[in-house]
Design brief:
InterPro entries: EmrB-like, MFS, MFS_dom, MFS_trans_sf
Number of strands: 0
Protein name: MFS transporter
Radius of gyration: 22 Å
Domain Major facilitator superfamily (MFS) profile: 29-477
Keywords: Cell membrane, Membrane, Transmembrane, Transmembrane helix, Transport
Helix content: over 70%
GO molecular function: transmembrane transporter activity
CATH architecture of the largest domain: Up-down Bundle
Low-confidence stretches: 7-15
Largest sheet: none
Distance between the termini: 37 Å
Number of helices: 19
Number of domains: 3
Mean pLDDT: 80
Length: 478
Amino acid sequence: MEKSLNADQVLTKEKKQTAAKPVAKPFLAMIGMLIGGFVGMLSETSLNIALPSLMAELHVSIGTIQWLVTGYMLVIGIVLPMSSLLSRWFSTRQLILFALGDFIIGAIISAMAPNFAILLVGRMIQGIATGLILPLMFTVATLIFPPYKLGSAMGMIGLVIMFAPAIGPTLAGMILGLLTWHWIFWLFIPFLLVGFYLAFKYLPNVGNVSKPKVDTFSIILSALGFGGLVTSVSLASEAGWASLEVIGTLVVAVLLLAWYIRRQIMSKTPILNFRVFADKQFTVGSLLVMLDFAIILSSMYLLPMFWQNGLAIPVALTGIVMLPGGIVNAVVSAIAGRFSDQVSPKLLITLGYGVTIIGIVILLLARATSPMWYVILGHIVIMVGAPLAMSPSQTFGLSALNQATSGDGSTIMNTFQQIIGAMATAIATSLLAFGQHLSNGGTQVAFTNGFHVGLLFTLIVAVVAFVIALTIKEQKRA
């Protein structure tokens, strides 16, 4: 009898250690997606450094060129919440192969683009791929890895997400120092082809294809609402915040989003489960994550242009001087992730935002004649503070949810990150242009003034986040 019990216990233990969808080589199954995710995140920051060159070559204004960044993130933000629905209509293998193929097509279109319009189309096609790959990496990992290996798998995904944006400006700077901006996209293609081959060979069909009813009207509301929100903010850099065009687009977008959110709350099978915002802890954590992403995206959009237009640094050197901050970002992100389970999240988050504010102030005091080390220092300080607050904010928010709603919470957090990031970039652009117009100095002095006005927005966001962090109470875990 005792032997029988022991056998049952061993069987139960083995069952708990088995993956939901066991595959022979789970790391090989993931590698194609990881390459796609790496290129997708690399693409999110690598083009920032090329924007001044693209403005001159394509003969467009700063308000227009920023669409290459905001348009890319906007598409990610629209596609990402639909990934859960799509994974019930198509196998994850089909979706990943489609996404990698889509990215290759988008990269080719961008690399061959003769004008701004075609380049923007290529960028937005790439955004579709990134919006599919990012959430599916996490979904597939939870299915094909046994529980005792899931931590390593998530760490691998986290490294991809942290490291790619960190080295994006540096790699782009090196490419632009030797070649033209077209090669930023050409060099994506070999990696994507390798990723496609590995995914085709090793990634099995996982997930459950149930083909549920599609709420087409909600999808339309989502696209128009989120799209209108980013568009209205982006238009402000050219038309001004007081223009009827901007105000009208913003009002319509807010109304459509309110309709969309109400429809999701009333639905039994929502695309995004907004009911999770009923939990205050999740709401606070999500808000802190969004504000953190706004700080990172707006500062990383402004800084490469300040190096080139404010300090007159060559584009190849810009990539090199951005590297220390990028490396610090990746290292601190990894460390913060480890400490977020051991140290009070309130301590880490408030410390992170406090350090971020100091870094922004350092850059606000920079001038067109400032030494290189001073601007590098400001960048490094921001890249210590912002990632220090990011991981604990995510953990704080998601730990309030149970297993049934944690997936919804993660999707909402990722979706709004991209939308807020796109809006922050657009706002920084409009303030940069506004600050330049206010200045009576030369080109470098005028751009430096615009840089400071744009950074004031980043500073306000950081101060608001710091104040919210002070309201955090003891963490509860579901």
